[in-house]
């Protein structure tokens, strides 16, 4: 009989430590595994050999610091994960393997706000089609990550604000999609998934504390603290778009006045340029014109940057992140928006917090959400699933 603290239990826990480290990073050298798990080099070498023989990991030659090394990643045959990203105007789906390789990806326009049923129907169809295109057996799909453009109640799994996605009121998107696909689905908001995507694949790699700011039709933030997404008890952590900047400002869709969103989100910013640039102008066009020197567009982009910077300064004072990653279309403006953000942070943040902050554009663009959804599915997959056994004691594994 296996007991906590026995050699069998300890060995199993060490196997899980190694699998978890590789699963999170995508690939690691054996030296990196030893550093991240705290296990000795000899123990890691023995475990990697065992996992390779069982077909759980792949080992390929590489180099690290000019020396020969071995890169360890999860086997492509161990399973796949699916990422589903709902934006206000799009649906994007990706299928990836456990070594962090994207096998298939597709995006299509969609008015997500209008109807949850239509959005979930389209997602079900696209997921099934991409799985079939990759030639993956359905029983090889070990999890689905789902992103939605609004706060998610962590306990109920429902959308936390009916004013943000009125067509989804009372809907539990994770349960609905899981029922349609017959697969486990893990759900989070788009900003958190953007943060996960940048943390694993993009501008946040190697960082333990960061804020991912997404500016689109709304404004949200994904907060990473000590390498983990911080959601808060109600799932609303990171709603930076509803920090009040002006109590007499425009009425926000949340019901308050002068929220950051009313000064930075596309739905509020674009009308400022209608008289000079026409009612059909988009944020993509504003950014392109600003980069080409258009004075009105440059002024609007700079103003948005200063407003975002004021809110980021508050984040710095409260959480002291080491990096802020700007996502969404606005990030393509580069220093035209990043410079004003830094200026506001320097003006309003505590100097010691501002001194340690790096502000960078996202590296993944519009793919941040769907790659974050893949990362969510990967992070929520139990290591025991990959090792082919059920955890003892009702799911509690002693480590």
Highlighted features:
399 residues; disordered C terminus; alpha/beta; 15 helices; five-stranded mixed beta sheet; single chain
Task: Summarize the SSE layout with pairings.
Elements: H1 7-25, E1 27-29, H2 30-37, H3 41-53, E2 57-64, E3 67-74, E4 80-86, E5 90-97, E6 102-109, H4 116-133, E7 141-148, H5 173-181, E8 185-189, H6 190-201, E9 210-215, E10 219-225, E11 228-230, H7 261-264, H8 266-269, H9 274-277, H10 283-291, H11 295-319, E12 323-327, H12 335-348, H13 351-355, E13 358-361, H14 368-380, H15 383-387
Parallel strand pairs: 4-7, 7-8, 9-12, 12-13
Antiparallel strand pairs: 1-3, 2-3, 4-5, 5-6, 9-10, 10-11
Helix pairs in contact: 1-2, 2-3, 4-5, 6-14, 10-11, 11-12
Number of helices: 15
Through-space gap between termini: 17 Å
Question: Percent of residues in beta strands?
Answer: 15-25%
Strand order of the largest sheet: 6-5-4-7-8
Order of helices and strands: HEHHEEEEEHEHEHEEEHHHHHEHHEHH
| Helix content class | 40-55%
Q: What is the strand tally?
A: 13
Biggest sheet architecture? 5 strands, mixed
What is the global morphology?
Answer: globular
Q: Tell me, rounded to a whole number, the average pLDDT.
A: 87
- Please compute the radius of gyration using only Cα atoms: 22 Å
Question: Which stretches are low in confidence, meaning pLDDT under 50 for 5 or more residues running?
Answer: 389-399
């Amino acid at each position: 009989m296996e007991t906590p603290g026995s050699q069998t239990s300890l060995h199993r826990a060490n196997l899980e430590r190694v699998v978890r480290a590789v699963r999170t990073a995508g690939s690691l050298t054996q030296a990196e595994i030893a550093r991240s798990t705290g296990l000795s080099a000899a123990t890691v070498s023995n475990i990697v050999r065992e996992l390779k023989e069982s077909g759980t990991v792949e080992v390929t030659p590489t180099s690290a610091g000019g020396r020969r090394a071995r890169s360890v990643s999860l086997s492509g045959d161990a399973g796949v994960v699916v990422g589903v990203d709902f934006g206000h105007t799009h649906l994007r789906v990706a299928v990836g393997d456990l070594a962090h390789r994207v096998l298939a990806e597709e995006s299509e326009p969609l008015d997500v706000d209008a109807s949850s049923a239509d959005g979930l129907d389209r997602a079900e169809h696209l997921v099934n089609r991409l799985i079939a295109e990759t030639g993956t057996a359905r029983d090889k799909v070990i999890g689905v990550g789902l992103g939605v453009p609004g706060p998610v109640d962590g306990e109920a799994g429902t959308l936390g604000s009916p004013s943000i996605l009125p067509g989804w009121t009372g809907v539990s998107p994770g349960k609905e999609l899981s029922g349609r696909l017959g697969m486990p689905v893990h759900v989070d908001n788009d900003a958190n998934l953007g943060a996960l995507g940048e943390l694993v694949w993009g501008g946040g790699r190697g960082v333990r504390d960061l804020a991912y700011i997404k500016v689109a039709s709304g404004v949200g933030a994904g907060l990473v603290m000590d390498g983990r997404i911080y959601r808060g008890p109600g799932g609303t952590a990171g709603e930076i778009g509803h920090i009040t900047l002006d109590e007499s400002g425009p009425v926000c869709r949340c019901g308050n006045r002068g929220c950051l969103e009313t000064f930075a989100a596309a739905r509020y910013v674009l009308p400022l340029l209608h008289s000079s640039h026409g009612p059909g102008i988009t944020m993509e066009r504003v950014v392109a014109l600003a980069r080409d020197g258009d004075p009105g567009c440059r002024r609007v982009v700079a103003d948005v940057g200063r407003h975002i910077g004021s809110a980021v300064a508050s984040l710095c004072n409260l959480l002291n992140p080491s990096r802020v990653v700007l996502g969404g279309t606005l990030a393509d403006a580069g220093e035209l928006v990043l410079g004003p953000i830094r200026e506001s942070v320097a003006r309003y943040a505590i100097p010691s917090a501002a001194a340690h902050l790096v502000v960078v554009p996202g590296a993944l663009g519009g793919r941040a959400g769907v790659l974050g959804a893949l990362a969510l599915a990967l992070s929520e997959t139990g290591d025991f699933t990959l090792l082919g056994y059920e955890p003892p004691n009702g799911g509690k594994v002693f480590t």
